[in-house]
Design a protein that fits this description.
- The structure is a single chain.
- This protein has 2 domains: 3-59, no CATH class; 80-315, Orthogonal Bundle (MetI-like fold).
- The protein contains 13 helices and no strands.
- With 316 residues, the protein is mostly helical.
- The longest helix has 32 residues, at 88-119.
């Protein structure tokens, strides 16, 4: 067979291949085609998320240490969970996490909603101030932690200078004081993520039809009644959604707190996520750390499930 004939046969086969594949696809049902397209995503999800989760659950019942791969792995049952749940230190870390979570959410909701109501009034420079307010949210948490470390310096920090302008307290060491350090990280997280709450509240405010307020004015409703009966019910789903996202993120907060206080002084600001890292990658108690990770996952998943049910009830 000549070279030209061989090339023509190869070209014909190449043209026939897409037609053959298309014919096979036309013979498949819609469900089969759907599974054909989503199967790579499912495989990737199983490889990246599900398998590590199952592997972590398995390790939580063993004495495995990642820095000793040749060591015999023993099945120890629920001993890691018993040690965790019976440890006063672990409950202290969870208490520090709860303090951080609750107060950041309270402050961010109050300030974020107030800023959203103010920006929504539509004054002349509202667009400029919206952009300025959103700047902290665009920064890296590690950068924010380092930046506020300098602001909190007792001798040269601007935060101490501002406080002493109003109240004479001397050298105020926010991140070195046992009583003030938890509030120091609350202030920083509130400064950084209040714009996120404001943004979602602003989206909710912009979605309220103006005719509702016009009808309320006809009925001679005052500003408080308009807010309570029109504004708040309409933006409540947006507000609850923002709290859900920020609550999950704050429960696993790590980088900003590490840069700011490293969990100190002592273990005052050592959140659960920070202690988990110490157990896993400093003490190398991988099985113990895996059990701690499972407990944190179950806690977040359970609280989030309850919260989502409440959110769906509010939306309906």
């Amino acid at each position: 067979m000549s070279g030209g004939a061989m090339e023509s046969v190869a070209d014909a086969a190449a043209r026939a291949t897409p037609k053959r594949v298309a014919g096979r696809l036309r013979g498949l049902s819609d469900r089969a085609i759907a599974w054909l397209f989503i199967s790579p995503t499912i495989v990737l999800l199983l490889a990246i998320n599900i398998f590590p989760l199952l592997w972590t659950v398995y390790l939580s019942f063993t004495n495995y240490r990642a820095n000793q791969p040749g060591r015999e792995v023993k099945w120890i049952g629920t001993r890691n969970y018993e040690r965790l749940l019976g440890s006063e230190d672990v409950w202290g870390y969870m208490q520090a996490t709860a303090h951080f979570l609750v107060w950041t959410m309270v402050l961010q909701v109050i300030i974020g909603l107030g800023l959203a109501l103010l920006i929504n009034r539509g004054f002349r420079t509202s667009g400029f101030w919206t952009t300025v307010i959103l700047i902290p949210m665009m920064l890296s948490p590690a950068v924010v932690g380092t930046f506020w470390t300098y602001l909190y310096q007792p001798q040269t920090g601007i935060f101490s200078y501002i406080i002493n302008t109003f109240v004479e307290v001397g050298a105020l060491n926010m991140i070195g004081s046992v009583s003030l350090a938890p509030w120091a990280i609350v202030i920083v997280d509130t400064w950084m993520w209040t714009p996120y709450i404001m943004l979602l509240c602003l989206a909710g405010l912009r979605s309220i039809p103006p005719y509702l307020y016009e009808a309320a004015e006809i009925d001679r409703a005052n500003a408080l009644q308009k807010f309570w009966y029109i504004t708040l019910p309409r933006i409540l789903p947006f507000l609850m959604l923002a709290v859900l996202f920020r609550g999950i993120e704050n429960f696993k907060m790590f980088d900003m707190v590490v840069e700011l206080t490293s969990g100190g002084p002592g273990s005052t600001t050592e959140l659960a996520s920070i202690n988990l890292k110490r157990e896993a990658f400093e003490k190398w108690r991988t099985g113990y750390a895996s059990a701690f990770a499972v407990i944190l996952f179950v806690t977040v998943f359970g609280l989030a499930s309850i919260y989502v049910k409440a959110l769906n009830r509010v939306r309906s």
